Every structure is written in structure tokens, then in C-alpha cells.
Amino acid sequence: MGTRIRERRVMLGLSQQQMADMIGVTYQQTHKYERGINRISAGRLYQISQVLQVPIGYFFEGLDGGDDNALPSRQRMCLELARNFSQINNERHQEALSQLARALAAEA
């Protein structure tokens, strides 16, 4: 669950401090939630879901006990790529980057 919180926070471009301020806790507490050190109450999970703009069920997707160890690194890279892409203000640059990605994908 903590991993999903962190991934969504990163995807939205929020720092731990920003998220902590939005849910009324310290950034250390946010860090502990994301690392799975502290449990998250139902009420706090609801607040987090509101801040991260996802349904509560989002945090439970993929918790069937499968092996997710290979996914987080690649998923984190994809999330950072999406966040950085959305911060490019120049539409021509966005289109150029999109075309580059398509060309690289076609090579594979």
C-alpha cells in the first residue's frame, strides 16, 4: 500500500512535505506511511485518497501476494517520465519527445 501511495504522489509531482501538509501530518509520518513502518487508519487513508485523487481501492490493487519486486523500479521510471513530460510547457518539445519515444520503441 505504501508503495502505491508513493508512486501516486510522485506521479502528481508532490513532495512528501506537500502531501504531509495536505493531510495534516509531518513529512516524517508520510515517509513512514510510504515505507510501511506505520499503519494507516481508514480515516487517514481516505484523506490520502482525496489528496492523491484516487479511489481507496487504488491502494489495494495488486495486493494478491504476487511477486512485484521487478516492477517498482520500472514503474517508478515510467511515473517520473510522465511527470517530467507533463511539466514541459512547449507543445513542440512535447511532440518531438513523443516522436522520439515512438521511434525508439519501433527499434525494439
Structural topology:
Elements lengths: L1 H10 L4 H8 L3 H9 L6 H11 L18 H16 L4 H17 L1
Written description of the protein model:
There is one protein chain. The protein has 108 residues and is mainly α. It has 6 helices and no strands. The chain has helices at residues 2-11, 16-23, 27-35, 42-52, 71-86, 91-107. It is elongated.
Radius of gyration: 16 Å
Described by the principal axes of the CA atoms, the overall outline is elongated
Number of domains: 2
Could you list the spans in which at least 5 consecutive residues all have pLDDT below 50? none
Helix-and-strand structural type: mainly alpha
CATH third-level topology of the largest domain:
434 Repressor (Amino-terminal Domain)
Order of helices and strands: HHHHHH
Count of DSSP helices? Answer: 6
- Fraction of residues in β-strands: under 5%
- Using DSSP, what is the number of strands? 0
Main beta sheet: none
Which CATH C-level class of the largest domain is it? Mainly Alpha
Helix content: 55-70%
- Overall pLDDT level: 86
Within CATH, the superfamily of the largest domain carries the name lambda repressor-like DNA-binding domains
**Distance between the amino and carboxyl termini:** 33 Å
Query: From the 3D coordinates, which CATH architecture of the largest domain would you assign?
Result: Orthogonal Bundle
